[in-house]
Amino acid sequence: MRALNLTERIRMAKKSSRPWYLIPYYLWIVLFVIAPIVLIVYFSFQDLSGGFTFSNYADFFSSTYLRLTLSSFWYAFLITLISILIAYPTAYWLTKTKHKQLWLLLIIIPSWINLLLKAYAFIGIFGLYGPANQLIQFFGASPLQILFTDFSFVFVAVYIFIPFMVLPIFNSLDKINPALIDASRDLGASQWMTFRRVIFPLALNGVKSGVQVVFIPALSLFVITRLIAGNKVITLGTAIEQQFLVTQNWGMGSTIAVFLMLFMIIIVLLTGPKEKGGALNGKAK
Amino acid sequence: MKDLVKASIAIIAISAVLFYAVHLLETSSATSGSGSISVYNWGEYIDPELVTRFEEETGIQVVYETFDSNESMMTKIEQGGTSYDVAMPSEYAIERMKENDLLLPIDQNKIPNLENIDPYFLDLPFDPGNEYSIPYFWGTVGIAFNPSLLEGQTFEQWDDLWDPTLEQEVILVDSAREVIGMGLNSLGYSLNSTDLGELREATDKLKILGPNVKAIIGDEIVEMMRREEAAVAVTWSGQAADMMWINEDIDYVVPVEGSNLWFDNMVIPSTAGNVDGAHEFINFMLDPEVAAQNADYVGYSTPNEEALALMDPEVTEDERFYPTEEMRDRLEVYENLGLEMLGVYNELFLEFKMDMEK
Fold it and tell me: Which of A33, B23, B77, B357 has the most CB atoms within 10 Å of its CB?
């Protein structure tokens, strides 16, 4: 969503021959977007003593960091997929309810609570003597180790990201003109056909925005990797934090950050709106 | 347009009111003439009552902030930004901070209570003559365990952790030097080893420990052990003392192969804005009565001889937390290995963590 706005704004800025009131905006972009990126790229070519080097990039392609990247992608993929599977039906159901705004608010409210608080709450819930295990015992099974597993990590991450997935999907589903669906039915399409040929393509851009706001942060989650996964899941975000705070190897930390940015750009390009074809979104209603 | 103007005025008015409120609050809390000091300390590492008492006695306001590793503390001080007046780094961090000119010399004339400190903890190799640092607490790294959850199993050496019956039972502290150091010690090597072969061997041995590891976490270890979520933890002595305070089944041992002996010290970072206030705070913390109360609260071992006399002998004679000088000689103090080696340790630690993933 963010990226979409940006490209739109740039397009607008070009059209309107850069009036004066955009100056604060350009200043902001230069100081807080371009300058940090340039600095990160600059630091990524520095070794521990501040000399110029390519060794950080060579190190990144060593086995540890490649495995780290792969496993980050795998978990981010799982988290995004499960979020879509839960959020899509939820969003669809939301558009059918009477009090849309109220339900939407109820789904969004948990995202206002601090991430750390939620993580600590889950430590209690998933503990050996916590409610989750009490439930399992109630059904006669013996307690399970839920905390500090990849299951708990994915579960909590999905829980955190679901509102961000529901919102864009809901918005695009809600925008669909009901006349289109009626037309599809009148012309003899089945329920499934209507969904596949009308609703799904029209709401696809909502899903893409959802993927952007979930997949990218999921790649760099770092607080819950320690609290919920007990450092048994390591993401690119954890590695960057370690390089800056513990190892104090800013060069390596920046190099990982550069790759993370590259991955993000690729994902935004892949999920961004296309000029031809499915450009059905944004149809004014 | 009218609405826009109205909205802007409302926002500016609200900001002004908030700004004024903050200003009022700040001036009312700093009424004294001697100003304030900011103290940068480890989490759960001071009795908050003592901070209040210091404020009442001296009129100096204390701004208190915490960190969770020597490295993050140093990074923050190096960046400047906040002018910390007192910090509590460990010995190898002090060596590094000295090298990087991050410390101010301490005027011992302003710290008469220094005479209360056991000479064993003064004039140590990381800071000869205590030019830059004053002892705060000391302790060890060892194994905390709960025999009631392990059918009475006890621990004596690091190798006991590799016992196959301990699957998914062991919690490790999230710190490269402690974990790699434990691997090195269990093989009979020094925990300051810079020999890449020895480090490789230690990491490979740690990887075999993988299936036994439940989690690698920080201060949450104490809660996990207290609530019997975990049976075994590799941790610092004071954290073990905290656990035992609540859960009496827990025991603590410093493994026979050797382990880490560490000293945390009070220093004045070069960014300090109130050097006199910092000296006053350090002197206050060395007062026997204050140090005894602090040690009772924190659970780590105090280097303050006079304070020991005021404390419960049951605590101070407990060799698990106050090992004798002879026992201390078996233990090793961390040396500053330099950024390069620190990088190697952390790379290996990351490799170990990655290998635990299934």
Answer: B77
B218 touches chain A (CB under 8 A): yes
Q: Which two structure tokens, joined as six digits, stand for A242?
A: 């370690």
The sign one gets for the Cα dihedral B161, B163, B166, B168 is positive
Residues of B in contact with A127 (CB under 8 A): 227, 229
Under DSSP, the state recorded for B310 is H
Whether B68 contacts chain A with CB within 8 A: no
Amino acid letter for position A244: F
Q: How confident is the model at residue B358 (pLDDT cuts 50, 70, 90)?
A: low
Of A231, A239, A249, the CB nearest to B216: A231
Dist. CA B253–CA B134, nearest whole Å: 27
Burial class of residue B140 in the structure, from the number of CB atoms within 10 Å of its CB (0-12 exposed, 13-18 middle, 19+ buried): buried
Structure tokens at B96: 């590094």
Is B247 part of the contact surface with chain A (CB cutoff 8 Å)?
no
Give the DSSP H or E segment for A76. Answer: helix A63-96
pLDDT of residue A278: 44
3-state secondary structure of B251: strand
Residues with Cβ within 8 Å of residue B182, at least 6 apart in sequence: B141, B158, B191, B206, B234, B259
Contact present, A59 and A65 (Cβ < 8 Å)? yes
Averaged over successive runs of 10 residues, the pLDDT of chain A (285 residues) comes to 57 63 91 94 90 90 88 94 96 91 91 90 91 90 89 94 94 92 90 90 92 91 89 90 86 93 91 57 42
- Greatest Cα pair distance, chain A, in angstroms, is 72
Confidence at residue A281, expressed as pLDDT on a 0 to 100 scale: 46
Q: How far is CA A83 from CA A102, A157, A167, B207, in A?
A: 21, 9, 12, 33
- Alpha-carbon gap, residue B284 to B289, rounded angstroms: 10
Mutate to test the interface with A, among B232, B346, B348 (most CBs of A within 10 A): B346
| Alpha-carbon torsion (A53, A54, A55, A57), positive or negative | positive
Q: Please judge whether A246 and B74 are an interchain contact, meaning their C-beta atoms are less than 8 angstroms apart.
A: no
Say yes or no for a CB contact (<8 Å) between B229 and A127. Answer: yes
Question: Angle CA(A73)–CA(A77)–CA(A83) in degrees, nearest 5?
Answer: 145
Instruction: Please indicate whether, in this complex, the C-beta atoms of A129 and B71 are within 8 angstroms of each other.
Output: no
For all residues of chain B together, what is the average pLDDT? 90
Q: Which residues of B touch A234 (CB under 8 A)?
A: 350, 353-354, 357
- B80 sits in which H/E element: none
Q: Are B217 and B171 in contact (CB under 8 A)?
A: yes
Q: Is B94 left (phi over 0), alpha (psi -120 to 50) or beta?
A: alpha
What amino acid is encoded at A44 in this protein? S
